[in-house]
Amino acid sequence: MSSKRILITGSSGLIGSEAVEHFDRQGHQVYGIDNNMRRVFFGESGDTTWNLERLRRTCKNFIHHNLDIRDRIGLESLFRSQRFDLIVHCAAQPSHDKARDIPILDFEVNALGTVNLLEATRLHCPEAVFILLSTNKVYGDAPNEIPLKELEKRWEYARPEDYNGVTENCRIDRTLHSLFGASKASADLMAQEYGRYFGMNVCIFRGGCLTGPSHSGVELHGFLSYLVKVAIAGGSYSVFGYKAKQVRDNIHSHDVVRAMEEFAENPRPGEVYNMGGGRGNSISMLEAIAKTEEMSGKKLNWKYVDENRKGDHICYISDLSKFKAHYPNWKVSIGLDEIFKQIIADHTQRLKSAGVS
Ligand SMILES: NC(=O)c1ccc[n+]([C@@H]2O[C@H](COP(=O)([O-])OP(=O)(O)OC[C@H]3O[C@@H](n4cnc5c(N)ncnc54)[C@H](O)[C@@H]3O)[C@@H](O)[C@H]2O)c1
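Above are the sequence and the nicotinamide-adenine-dinucleotide SMILES. Below is the predicted complex in structure-token form.
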């Protein structure tokens, strides 16, 4: 890409910060929006200030705006002042379980905040590429209808045709989403309309488990980061239901940003893609606990709660065939071992900086 003006919302979060660093390194002018609302949602351990400070220290062409995506007037004035070429929308209330305590706030941030950004884009830079970070929770619990078999350490798809996981053809209605899944589905559908109805360069990534060292992991969101944090810094980890054999596919934030870059160079208006670690980066809770202990050398203090989280997936693997077919230069480049290694190193470093060894 030649030098572009890139707006990244949720820029102090996991995916947003990875995108800021990546595009900054390439010499683009990067504008971030983040009001540290993760701290409002999850308390002090969700505070993203450390990550904003890190970006300010390391990036050359990064301008941060402490703006709320619900603030339509603030967005309007930002979009009037700059003509963006690419908008990467990562700001969200990201937790499945948290949404039930704050249904209105969850909807305002996830659904309305997204429409505010789509509309500002349509009015001020309609030719820009717009990438929405959506979620596999838009499928609700429909993926749980896929027949499963129980293995010693994980649930597994029973039929060979399901081996690669869930495709974008999975239905998104008549399922149990959680309020979070429903607010994200609203955003996902509106973004599709701006692509299909208005013909704008909008795409939607339906994330599996997005992970990496820059997560401010908390119990309610960011499972790998939180699991490693508890193993290293202490505390207790609870696993809810499904015999601790539930399976997730994990993708490093770098590979998500690489996918954004591929789309931005060759946009296909209104497309929806599943975006996760795929079969190769899938792991069950039992396997993740064993790997964390093995790689960190620390024993995890965990307990099993015999009730699953409402609407939680039993086995979810993102089928990545569609994105790979449209963008053959892209692949999952960071495997599970490297992901664990980086998260462990980062939490160890954070603990050291906090003066605890
Ligand atoms: N992490 C995952 O496992 C995962 C999985 C699927 C989808 N996603 C989606 O990917 C996106 C990014 O997720 P993440 O893991 O980086 O989340 P994150 O919580 O680390 O980052 C989101 C950032 O948005 C900011 N934010 C929240 N509300 C805001 C508001 N009203 N105005 C401005 N900033 C606000 C937060 O302060 C936070 O820094 C989200 O849309 C999330 O739903 C994440």
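The radius of gyration is 19 Å.
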